[in-house]
Write a structure and sequence with these properties.
With 371 residues, the protein is α+β, with helices and mostly antiparallel strands. The chain has 3 domains: 5-184, Rossmann fold (3-Layer(aba) Sandwich); 216-268, Roll (SH3 type barrels); 272-362, Translation factors (Elongation Factor Tu (Ef-tu), domain 3, Beta Barrel). It has helices spanning 5-16, 31-34, 46-59, 69-85, 92-111, 153-157, 168-177, 181-184, 200-207, 211-215, 361-364, and strands at residues 22-27, 62-67, 117-118, 123-128, 131-136, 159-160, 218-221, 227-231, 254-259, 264-268, 274-285, 294-300, 308-314, 320-329, 336-341, 344-352. The strands form 5 sheets. Strands 11-14-13-12-15-16 form a 6-stranded antiparallel barrel. A hairpin with a 5-residue loop joins strand 13 (308-314) and strand 14. Helix 4 (69-85) runs antiparallel to helix 5 (92-111). The longest helix is centred in the N-terminal third of the chain and has 20 residues, at 92-111. The protein is globular and about 65 Å long. The model is unreliable at 362-371 (pLDDT under 50).
Length: 371
Protein backbone atom coordinates (compact mmCIF):
# COMPACT_ATOMS: atom_id res chain seq x y z
CA UNK A 1 0.00 0.00 0.00
CA UNK A 2 1.73 3.11 -1.26
CA UNK A 3 -0.96 5.47 0.00
CA UNK A 4 -2.16 6.11 -3.54
CA UNK A 5 -5.56 5.32 -4.98
CA UNK A 6 -4.67 2.09 -6.82
CA UNK A 7 -3.16 0.08 -3.98
CA UNK A 8 -5.73 1.50 -1.55
CA UNK A 9 -8.71 0.42 -3.66
CA UNK A 10 -7.06 -2.97 -4.27
CA UNK A 11 -6.90 -3.50 -0.50
CA UNK A 12 -10.51 -2.34 -0.05
CA UNK A 13 -11.73 -4.68 -2.78
CA UNK A 14 -10.05 -7.72 -1.25
CA UNK A 15 -11.28 -6.80 2.23
CA UNK A 16 -14.84 -6.46 0.94
CA UNK A 17 -14.53 -9.85 -0.78
CA UNK A 18 -13.83 -11.47 2.56
CA UNK A 19 -10.07 -11.84 2.46
CA UNK A 20 -8.09 -11.32 5.66
CA UNK A 21 -5.99 -8.35 4.58
CA UNK A 22 -2.72 -7.04 6.01
CA UNK A 23 -1.57 -3.74 4.53
CA UNK A 24 2.18 -3.35 3.91
CA UNK A 25 3.78 0.00 3.11
CA UNK A 26 7.40 -0.24 2.02
CA UNK A 27 9.79 2.53 2.93
CA UNK A 28 12.23 2.39 0.04
CA UNK A 29 14.14 5.63 0.28
CA UNK A 30 14.79 8.76 2.32
CA UNK A 31 13.76 11.97 0.63
CA UNK A 32 16.44 13.90 2.54
CA UNK A 33 19.16 11.71 1.03
CA UNK A 34 18.13 12.54 -2.54
CA UNK A 35 18.98 16.21 -2.13
CA UNK A 36 16.38 17.26 -4.66
CA UNK A 37 14.61 20.59 -4.74
CA UNK A 38 11.04 19.34 -4.95
CA UNK A 39 8.77 18.98 -1.93
CA UNK A 40 8.54 15.44 -0.56
CA UNK A 41 5.78 13.59 -2.41
CA UNK A 42 5.01 10.12 -3.68
CA UNK A 43 4.96 6.65 -2.23
CA UNK A 44 7.66 7.12 0.40
CA UNK A 45 6.56 10.43 1.89
CA UNK A 46 5.24 10.61 5.43
CA UNK A 47 1.87 11.79 4.11
CA UNK A 48 1.54 8.76 1.84
CA UNK A 49 2.47 6.35 4.63
CA UNK A 50 -0.12 8.00 6.89
CA UNK A 51 -2.74 7.80 4.11
CA UNK A 52 -2.16 4.07 3.79
CA UNK A 53 -2.34 3.53 7.55
CA UNK A 54 -5.48 5.65 7.93
CA UNK A 55 -7.30 3.71 5.24
CA UNK A 56 -6.37 0.38 6.85
CA UNK A 57 -7.59 1.59 10.24
CA UNK A 58 -10.82 2.89 8.69
CA UNK A 59 -11.50 -0.44 6.95
CA UNK A 60 -10.53 -2.48 9.98
CA UNK A 61 -7.44 -4.40 8.89
CA UNK A 62 -3.84 -4.45 10.07
CA UNK A 63 -1.14 -2.22 8.61
CA UNK A 64 2.63 -2.23 8.97
CA UNK A 65 5.65 -0.49 7.52
CA UNK A 66 8.48 -2.49 5.96
CA UNK A 67 11.80 -0.63 5.92
CA UNK A 68 13.84 -1.75 2.92
CA UNK A 69 15.89 1.41 2.45
CA UNK A 70 19.22 -0.37 2.75
CA UNK A 71 18.37 -3.02 0.18
CA UNK A 72 16.76 -0.49 -2.14
CA UNK A 73 19.80 1.77 -1.99
CA UNK A 74 22.29 -1.06 -2.38
CA UNK A 75 20.59 -2.58 -5.36
CA UNK A 76 18.21 -0.21 -7.15
CA UNK A 77 19.86 3.17 -6.65
CA UNK A 78 23.42 1.88 -7.04
CA UNK A 79 22.37 0.08 -10.20
CA UNK A 80 20.68 3.24 -11.50
CA UNK A 81 23.96 5.12 -11.15
CA UNK A 82 26.05 2.25 -12.53
CA UNK A 83 23.89 2.00 -15.63
CA UNK A 84 24.27 5.66 -16.55
CA UNK A 85 28.02 5.41 -15.95
CA UNK A 86 28.06 2.43 -18.30
CA UNK A 87 26.33 4.48 -21.00
CA UNK A 88 22.97 2.72 -20.63
CA UNK A 89 19.48 3.96 -19.71
CA UNK A 90 18.26 2.10 -16.60
CA UNK A 91 14.82 0.68 -15.81
CA UNK A 92 14.62 0.97 -11.99
CA UNK A 93 10.93 0.04 -11.67
CA UNK A 94 11.49 -3.33 -13.34
CA UNK A 95 14.44 -4.13 -11.08
CA UNK A 96 12.55 -3.00 -8.00
CA UNK A 97 9.58 -5.21 -8.80
CA UNK A 98 11.72 -8.24 -9.59
CA UNK A 99 14.40 -8.13 -6.92
CA UNK A 100 13.05 -5.96 -4.11
CA UNK A 101 9.30 -5.52 -3.78
CA UNK A 102 8.18 -9.06 -4.56
CA UNK A 103 11.00 -10.58 -2.54
CA UNK A 104 10.22 -8.36 0.46
CA UNK A 105 6.46 -8.94 0.22
CA UNK A 106 6.76 -12.71 -0.10
CA UNK A 107 9.12 -12.98 2.85
CA UNK A 108 6.81 -10.92 5.03
CA UNK A 109 3.80 -12.89 3.74
CA UNK A 110 5.48 -16.11 4.87
CA UNK A 111 6.16 -14.64 8.31
CA UNK A 112 2.48 -13.65 8.61
CA UNK A 113 1.17 -16.94 7.18
CA UNK A 114 -0.41 -15.06 4.27
CA UNK A 115 -1.19 -17.18 1.22
CA UNK A 116 -1.07 -14.40 -1.40
CA UNK A 117 0.35 -10.95 -2.04
CA UNK A 118 -1.63 -8.29 -3.90
CA UNK A 119 -0.69 -4.98 -5.52
CA UNK A 120 -2.43 -2.15 -7.34
CA UNK A 121 -0.87 -2.94 -10.72
CA UNK A 122 -3.12 -2.79 -13.78
CA UNK A 123 -2.31 -6.30 -14.99
CA UNK A 124 -3.80 -9.77 -14.80
CA UNK A 125 -2.43 -13.18 -13.79
CA UNK A 126 -3.86 -16.63 -14.48
CA UNK A 127 -2.84 -20.27 -14.52
CA UNK A 128 -2.75 -22.07 -17.84
CA UNK A 129 -1.27 -25.51 -18.57
CA UNK A 130 0.65 -25.49 -15.32
CA UNK A 131 2.21 -22.05 -15.83
CA UNK A 132 1.27 -18.70 -14.34
CA UNK A 133 0.87 -16.04 -17.00
CA UNK A 134 0.82 -12.25 -16.93
CA UNK A 135 -1.47 -10.41 -19.32
CA UNK A 136 -2.37 -6.79 -19.95
CA UNK A 137 -4.80 -4.94 -17.73
CA UNK A 138 -8.20 -4.14 -19.21
CA UNK A 139 -7.39 -0.42 -19.22
CA UNK A 140 -4.85 -0.12 -22.06
CA UNK A 141 -3.91 3.40 -20.94
CA UNK A 142 -2.93 2.14 -17.48
CA UNK A 143 -1.61 -1.32 -18.34
CA UNK A 144 1.51 -2.16 -16.29
CA UNK A 145 2.30 -5.66 -17.53
CA UNK A 146 5.46 -4.20 -19.12
CA UNK A 147 7.17 -3.76 -15.73
CA UNK A 148 6.33 -7.30 -14.55
CA UNK A 149 8.29 -9.34 -17.10
CA UNK A 150 10.99 -10.23 -14.58
CA UNK A 151 8.73 -12.03 -12.09
CA UNK A 152 9.33 -15.72 -11.47
CA UNK A 153 6.72 -18.46 -11.64
CA UNK A 154 6.92 -18.75 -7.85
CA UNK A 155 6.14 -15.04 -7.45
CA UNK A 156 3.29 -15.10 -9.97
CA UNK A 157 1.69 -18.15 -8.35
CA UNK A 158 1.13 -16.13 -5.19
CA UNK A 159 0.33 -12.76 -6.82
CA UNK A 160 -3.07 -11.12 -7.18
CA UNK A 161 -3.87 -7.98 -9.19
CA UNK A 162 -7.41 -6.92 -8.20
CA UNK A 163 -7.46 -3.92 -10.55
CA UNK A 164 -6.55 -5.81 -13.70
CA UNK A 165 -10.13 -6.12 -14.91
CA UNK A 166 -11.10 -2.48 -14.36
CA UNK A 167 -10.58 0.94 -15.91
CA UNK A 168 -9.01 3.73 -13.89
CA UNK A 169 -12.28 5.68 -13.96
CA UNK A 170 -14.01 2.76 -12.24
CA UNK A 171 -11.33 2.66 -9.54
CA UNK A 172 -11.80 6.37 -8.84
CA UNK A 173 -15.55 5.83 -8.59
CA UNK A 174 -15.03 3.00 -6.11
CA UNK A 175 -12.99 5.31 -3.90
CA UNK A 176 -15.79 7.89 -4.04
CA UNK A 177 -18.40 5.23 -3.27
CA UNK A 178 -16.46 4.19 -0.16
CA UNK A 179 -16.34 7.80 1.01
CA UNK A 180 -12.64 8.37 0.26
CA UNK A 181 -13.15 11.50 -1.83
CA UNK A 182 -9.69 12.96 -1.22
CA UNK A 183 -8.09 9.67 -2.20
CA UNK A 184 -10.21 9.50 -5.36
CA UNK A 185 -8.90 12.92 -6.46
CA UNK A 186 -5.31 12.33 -5.42
CA UNK A 187 -2.93 13.15 -8.29
CA UNK A 188 -0.74 10.40 -9.71
CA UNK A 189 3.04 10.49 -9.59
CA UNK A 190 5.00 9.58 -12.72
CA UNK A 191 8.51 10.41 -11.50
CA UNK A 192 11.09 7.87 -10.39
CA UNK A 193 10.35 7.54 -6.68
CA UNK A 194 13.86 8.49 -5.53
CA UNK A 195 14.08 11.44 -7.96
CA UNK A 196 10.90 13.42 -7.20
CA UNK A 197 12.16 16.50 -9.03
CA UNK A 198 12.66 14.37 -12.19
CA UNK A 199 16.23 15.68 -12.56
CA UNK A 200 18.30 12.51 -12.92
CA UNK A 201 21.36 14.49 -13.99
CA UNK A 202 21.34 16.44 -10.74
CA UNK A 203 20.84 13.18 -8.85
CA UNK A 204 23.91 11.67 -10.53
CA UNK A 205 25.96 14.75 -9.63
CA UNK A 206 24.93 14.49 -5.99
CA UNK A 207 25.46 10.73 -5.88
CA UNK A 208 28.90 10.57 -7.54
CA UNK A 209 31.46 12.95 -6.11
CA UNK A 210 33.21 14.95 -8.80
CA UNK A 211 31.27 13.35 -11.65
CA UNK A 212 30.88 16.57 -13.65
CA UNK A 213 34.63 17.24 -13.51
CA UNK A 214 35.49 13.66 -14.48
CA UNK A 215 33.35 13.56 -17.61
CA UNK A 216 33.31 17.19 -18.75
CA UNK A 217 34.37 18.26 -22.23
CA UNK A 218 33.63 15.01 -24.00
CA UNK A 219 33.20 15.06 -27.75
CA UNK A 220 30.15 14.96 -29.96
CA UNK A 221 30.90 12.94 -33.09
CA UNK A 222 28.96 11.83 -36.13
CA UNK A 223 28.82 8.24 -37.39
CA UNK A 224 31.88 8.85 -39.59
CA UNK A 225 33.92 9.95 -36.58
CA UNK A 226 33.94 13.68 -37.36
CA UNK A 227 34.02 15.95 -34.31
CA UNK A 228 30.88 18.11 -34.04
CA UNK A 229 31.59 19.85 -30.73
CA UNK A 230 31.84 19.33 -26.99
CA UNK A 231 29.23 17.93 -24.60
CA UNK A 232 28.99 18.10 -20.81
CA UNK A 233 29.68 14.42 -20.15
CA UNK A 234 28.31 11.14 -21.54
CA UNK A 235 26.22 10.07 -18.45
CA UNK A 236 23.95 13.07 -18.97
CA UNK A 237 22.59 11.77 -22.29
CA UNK A 238 20.39 8.93 -23.48
CA UNK A 239 19.81 7.34 -26.87
CA UNK A 240 17.09 9.17 -28.79
CA UNK A 241 17.59 12.48 -26.99
CA UNK A 242 17.18 15.60 -29.12
CA UNK A 243 16.66 18.48 -26.68
CA UNK A 244 19.28 19.67 -24.24
CA UNK A 245 22.31 19.02 -26.45
CA UNK A 246 23.60 22.53 -25.75
CA UNK A 247 24.54 23.29 -29.34
CA UNK A 248 22.86 24.33 -32.58
CA UNK A 249 23.62 22.04 -35.52
CA UNK A 250 21.37 23.50 -38.19
CA UNK A 251 19.37 20.31 -38.68
CA UNK A 252 17.78 18.50 -35.73
CA UNK A 253 20.29 16.04 -34.26
CA UNK A 254 19.67 13.05 -32.01
CA UNK A 255 21.82 10.91 -29.73
CA UNK A 256 22.54 7.68 -31.63
CA UNK A 257 25.10 6.06 -29.37
CA UNK A 258 26.92 6.63 -26.07
CA UNK A 259 30.54 5.53 -25.71
CA UNK A 260 31.56 5.64 -22.03
CA UNK A 261 35.07 4.31 -22.70
CA UNK A 262 36.00 7.42 -24.68
CA UNK A 263 33.43 9.90 -23.28
CA UNK A 264 31.93 10.29 -26.74
CA UNK A 265 28.32 10.88 -27.76
CA UNK A 266 27.46 10.02 -31.35
CA UNK A 267 24.88 12.24 -33.01
CA UNK A 268 22.91 11.82 -36.20
CA UNK A 269 19.66 12.46 -37.99
CA UNK A 270 16.36 10.88 -37.01
CA UNK A 271 16.47 8.29 -39.78
CA UNK A 272 19.77 7.03 -38.36
CA UNK A 273 18.01 6.20 -35.09
CA UNK A 274 15.96 3.52 -36.80
CA UNK A 275 17.05 -0.09 -36.31
CA UNK A 276 15.63 -3.47 -37.30
CA UNK A 277 17.82 -5.72 -35.12
CA UNK A 278 18.12 -5.71 -31.34
CA UNK A 279 19.89 -7.94 -28.80
CA UNK A 280 18.36 -8.72 -25.40
CA UNK A 281 20.28 -10.00 -22.37
CA UNK A 282 19.14 -11.63 -19.12
CA UNK A 283 15.84 -12.84 -20.60
CA UNK A 284 13.06 -14.18 -18.38
CA UNK A 285 10.30 -16.20 -20.03
CA UNK A 286 6.84 -16.35 -18.47
CA UNK A 287 4.55 -17.97 -21.03
CA UNK A 288 7.12 -20.42 -22.43
CA UNK A 289 9.84 -22.66 -21.03
CA UNK A 290 12.17 -21.77 -23.88
CA UNK A 291 12.31 -20.33 -27.37
CA UNK A 292 13.04 -22.85 -30.10
CA UNK A 293 13.58 -21.68 -33.63
CA UNK A 294 11.96 -18.36 -34.47
CA UNK A 295 9.07 -16.96 -32.44
CA UNK A 296 6.77 -14.23 -33.72
CA UNK A 297 5.74 -11.63 -31.16
CA UNK A 298 4.88 -8.00 -30.59
CA UNK A 299 7.89 -6.37 -28.92
CA UNK A 300 7.74 -3.21 -26.82
CA UNK A 301 11.00 -1.34 -26.19
CA UNK A 302 9.65 1.17 -23.66
CA UNK A 303 6.65 1.48 -21.34
CA UNK A 304 4.47 3.63 -23.62
CA UNK A 305 5.56 1.90 -26.82
CA UNK A 306 2.66 0.43 -28.81
CA UNK A 307 4.84 -2.49 -29.88
CA UNK A 308 6.18 -3.75 -33.22
CA UNK A 309 5.84 -7.11 -34.98
CA UNK A 310 9.08 -9.03 -34.65
CA UNK A 311 10.79 -12.43 -34.85
CA UNK A 312 12.68 -13.61 -31.76
CA UNK A 313 15.40 -16.25 -31.73
CA UNK A 314 17.89 -17.51 -29.17
CA UNK A 315 21.57 -16.76 -29.63
CA UNK A 316 24.37 -19.16 -28.65
CA UNK A 317 25.36 -17.10 -25.62
CA UNK A 318 21.84 -17.15 -24.10
CA UNK A 319 20.82 -13.72 -25.32
CA UNK A 320 17.84 -13.21 -27.59
CA UNK A 321 17.95 -11.64 -31.03
CA UNK A 322 14.95 -9.59 -32.06
CA UNK A 323 14.38 -8.80 -35.74
CA UNK A 324 11.71 -6.17 -36.30
CA UNK A 325 9.52 -6.32 -39.40
CA UNK A 326 9.83 -2.55 -39.75
CA UNK A 327 12.41 -0.09 -38.39
CA UNK A 328 12.05 0.92 -34.72
CA UNK A 329 13.12 4.31 -33.40
CA UNK A 330 15.56 4.95 -30.52
CA UNK A 331 16.38 1.50 -29.14
CA UNK A 332 18.13 2.39 -25.86
CA UNK A 333 20.49 -0.14 -24.20
CA UNK A 334 19.47 -0.73 -20.57
CA UNK A 335 15.76 -0.35 -21.18
CA UNK A 336 13.41 -3.35 -21.09
CA UNK A 337 12.24 -5.24 -24.15
CA UNK A 338 8.97 -7.08 -23.48
CA UNK A 339 7.45 -9.64 -25.84
CA UNK A 340 3.69 -10.14 -26.21
CA UNK A 341 1.46 -12.81 -27.66
CA UNK A 342 -1.79 -10.88 -27.95
CA UNK A 343 -2.39 -9.61 -24.41
CA UNK A 344 -0.09 -12.15 -22.78
CA UNK A 345 3.48 -11.41 -21.76
CA UNK A 346 5.77 -14.02 -23.30
CA UNK A 347 8.76 -12.63 -21.40
CA UNK A 348 11.31 -9.89 -21.52
CA UNK A 349 14.88 -8.82 -20.94
CA UNK A 350 17.26 -5.88 -21.02
CA UNK A 351 18.24 -4.27 -24.32
CA UNK A 352 21.96 -4.84 -24.87
CA UNK A 353 24.66 -3.45 -27.05
CA UNK A 354 25.78 -5.94 -29.66
CA UNK A 355 28.99 -6.71 -27.76
CA UNK A 356 27.51 -6.99 -24.25
CA UNK A 357 27.45 -10.45 -22.61
CA UNK A 358 24.24 -12.14 -21.54
CA UNK A 359 24.93 -11.88 -17.82
CA UNK A 360 25.79 -8.70 -15.95
CA UNK A 361 26.46 -9.14 -12.25
CA UNK A 362 24.24 -6.29 -11.11
CA UNK A 363 21.14 -8.02 -12.50
CA UNK A 364 21.89 -11.55 -11.33
CA UNK A 365 23.31 -10.94 -7.86
CA UNK A 366 20.28 -9.54 -6.06
CA UNK A 367 20.91 -8.81 -2.40
CA UNK A 368 18.73 -10.59 0.15
CA UNK A 369 16.03 -8.50 1.76
CA UNK A 370 16.38 -8.24 5.52
CA UNK A 371 13.18 -8.17 7.58
Amino acid sequence: MSGGIDSSVAAMMLHDQGYEVVGITMKTWDYASSGGSKKETGCCSLDSINDARNLAVNRGFHHMILDIRNEFGDHIIDNFVDEYLAGRTPNPCVLCNTHIKWEALLKRADMLNCEFIATGHYAQVREENGRYLVSKGLDENKDQSYVLWGLSQESLQRSRFPLGGYHKSEIRQMAHDHGFHELANKPESYEICFIPDNDYRGFLDRRVDGLAEKVEKGLYKDVEGNVLGQHRGYPYYTVGQRKGLGMAFGDPMYVLEIRPETNEVVLGHKDQLQKTIMHVRNPNLIKLDSIEGELEAITKIRYKDRGTHSAISKETDGRLKVEFYKPVLAIAPGQSAVFYDGNDVIGGGFIARKEEPNELKRFTDARPVRL
